[in-house]
Design goal:
homohexamer; about 210 residues; alpha+beta; 3 domains; 5-stranded antiparallel β-sheet; 11 strands; globular
């Protein structure tokens, strides 16, 4: 499976000019490679997920390390995530538009699963050292069902897999009430309530 | 963007042996091409979406024509859909794991939109002859907002784009109540109610 | 099938600086994305093919909407075309170097077909609501054989499928006479005549 | 550029059961790999183009070595061709739907060229040791303009690039006269004449 | 980056008929998918790398989990490896022909590095929780430089990345002595000695 | 097989601004296409490998023509190499991280081979007019075993296949002695000696 274009050189660490103007800001989204002779080992090493992120009150923290966070990944077709769960913490139903994910449990017991195009669910509790694959683009989710914090390390076959968290994407994005009411069989009041709950919470997490 | 492997011949209409045994049924999922000399124009023409599907009570009907329904598409990286909307009919928030969609309004006025990875919404009412693109893998939706039935013709850059309809995938698939309650801020009773409403309705539509 | 690189973000509407100098003109061919926060629904909607193009005397008009005409398509791997045919109007034998086409008849009766690598023809008259697939890179053609104007809407699995119209590419491009005479078994006078007829006509259409 | 799917193993020499029945014939189009332990060096070596093919009266001979002729190429995304030209011999305008070609002149002086989507021609006489690239899917052609036989060795980035020779594809395939007359500005008599000349000639060459 | 073809369905767990004959053995290399309705969560979970493999005397153990070992990965474009190192244990210079690798240190201190096409080295000691990326197809290596056993978890963007371990591929495969002597500036005696050492050791590891 | 992204236009000859500053140097690695109307046939023709390179004392010379050396190849997914061998000259074990190679012997008798992921060797002497395929990313090698100079012309399915020459990549790049000693069963003195021999020699060749 392929979610990214193929590379045409060994690697390409983006050259990022200082963002001192609107125009430069635009240019910085171009793919400009540093001269390879100026690259060194540190460009290919990431040290920012050695410990858990901050759970705050949500009980869940995810650090998604795509090619923006770790430029050495650029053009190489991979990225990764560290997800930490407090007791009972959840990773809400979500999916990645451009990648398959292979997730390994580093600590704890986690209920993991995904849903296929026929609405069949594939879910189970897995433990430290076990690995589950979430096929490209399918809705999946996790919940810490053990009695201690849990950690998952996921890797993706895209340098920027994208992310749509269902509650925020559907109820926090501004889709017309009438459509949501019909789609989910909810009342206007219920929709409002969900919006109130979901909007700020997601903003903290994004 | 690419959602399918490249072809290695002009075309490959699957050769489908009669499904008279379990083993043959398995074999039929293999990619066996008919001899090209036995193919003819009819293999590349689809006539099954000349008129609307049956709305029933849901007010919406979609006929997805992938390479199973239209074998001539096999290996060619495209497929299409005809969606018909009665007054107020909706196509619930959904996405295609393996394709971008380009949708043209054939009749009527339709509120169309999608949500990006940052939960921003891009939505507007479009009319007969207008075209909207839904980027690969992003949640999108439609609702007939005109005063007559509406029809959309969508095309995909995959022979089998896949489909996840959010209400059924999330509330009709059997994800644990506790996870859903936390994810959407709903009570157990509300979840039950949504399940009751969504399960059978989706089954009719799939 | 894949004719374009995979995307590495949800979408990328090209940022096009004003073409006020030669250098900027060059730069504008780079892929610079607008900040997603500055995009809106209109960037993903195309309204320019609601009515037929101008037939002039040729009896045929095609509006090809690739990622230059509709920047929202950029990186998304799709584009489309509206083709209108007056009575007896034809779309000359042509092909798209980088895409499969799925063509739906919106109005009229159209003789549609393609030729495969073994010079076998797959052609038939199709009508409103019928769909024909033209496999990637193969020569295909259309002719209005009904008694009223006809319209076709085609979609492609490339943001820029390319186009080679055989008469103009072969007889209007300047290939040496000697080669053309041998290739087609024509006299020099016949070649000259075809050139005279084909050159200006194609220029109007391109 | 990619015209084939990526491999998922080092190589895959197709396992071809004896074609002793219709059903086996179908099966043989499946991709079945020989056990790698039964492969040897000869599976990856091709010795059939050491000398020129037979010109017969046409003055041109091409031996296209795709993955059918040389099974070791299967899944590896490449193939090649040897083309020999007698004095004044031509390779008629043609294109490969699924590959770029890089052509090296092994002997002689050859007028080589291609036409782009804007009908611009890129053509020149090149000599032994010179190389010309024909971009994927564009019409190209060659003619021996030296005073001795010429030979070209071309390679492709597809295991099966496909081939459409314009004269035979357009005038030898059975496209309706009326369409051809309009497309090329020819009379019915001229079309008939071209058909008579092109049909058998192409059949010898294919 | 892409090393595998794109999927055309949500997933495809290979259907493997019993290998009771030579012919069936061949057939089993075909891609036959189990009916999705017969799949369950266990098909997508791998539990075989919860603990280290057996170091034996080599001080190193790698368990490569590709789509043969874990059929649920089939068509999904990813695979993974667990590598364990005793004190001073090494993973010899090697590369994967069809994938980038992202490697995370689960335990210990490991000297990790790769070499680019200009023979520049990118190497450093990394620790638990740090991640290094090895670009597709480049030679890389690891050595436990801490004072306790070390473990690395690597993931790949191919379901079957392939592996060439340089010592065995070059000195243990049977390349002519004369070529090796010239290539490495070694004497025949030295080559013999390396062969003796490398042949059996690699066989234990493969 | 695919080692490069797909093109999205007929061709794209990079526009290279003058490298008069560090910033421009960076910009020049961007993909800026010349206006197609300013391109001509010479942009697609390469004349630099009509005769052999300089053997110097090494007995081997390779001219790798990727998209940097021949900008017309840019985005077209192919490149090529001319390799000349004096009597007994060798092309050391090496591989291309991003391409399959199809190699034709233009002159002489050459021992050619490659090694697969199971360390099996596929090697044989081939002669003028014979062709061997080296699957993507696998170690391969050549040696002139005839009694006159030999020449090979290789083509690749990537515009920039990359190259890792094993002796220089492993012994000339600075991998820690301890790791190399263990990996190859060599003494520190032997490693030093190899380094001395390999370092300068490779530098002349790169």
């Amino acid at each position: 499976m392929a979610s990214d274009p193929d590379p045409v050189q060994d690697f390409c660490i983006p050259y990022t000019p200082k963002p001192d103007s609107r125009r430069i800001a635009q240019l910085s989204s171009l793919q400009q490679c540093k001269n390879a002779s100026e690259a060194n080992a540190d460009d290919f090493i990431f040290s920012g997920i050695k410990s858990a992120g901050d759970f705050k009150e949500s009980g869940f923290s995810a650090m998604s390390i795509n090619s923006k966070a770790f430029p050495g990944l650029n053009t190489l077709g991979m990225s990764f995530v560290r997800a930490d769960f407090d007791l009972g913490g959840i990773n809400v139903p979500h999916f990645h538009p451009r990648a398959t994910e292979v997730a390994m449990v580093l600590e704890g017991k986690v209920y993991c699963g995904f849903v296929d195009s026929a609405n069949r669910i594939y879910a189970k509790v897995i433990e430290k050292g076990e690995v589950m694959v979430f096929p490209r683009g399918l809705v999946h989710f996790q919940m810490n069902v053990g009695d201690s914090p849990a950690t998952i390390y996921g890797s993706f076959n895209s340098q920027n897999p994208g992310l749509q968290r269902i509650p925020a994407a559907v109820f926090g994005s501004g889709i017309k009430d009438e459509l949501l009411k019909k789609a989910f069989g909810l009342s206007g009041k219920q929709i409002d309530e969900m919006r109130r709950k979901l909007k700020p919470k997601e903003e903290n997490q994004s």
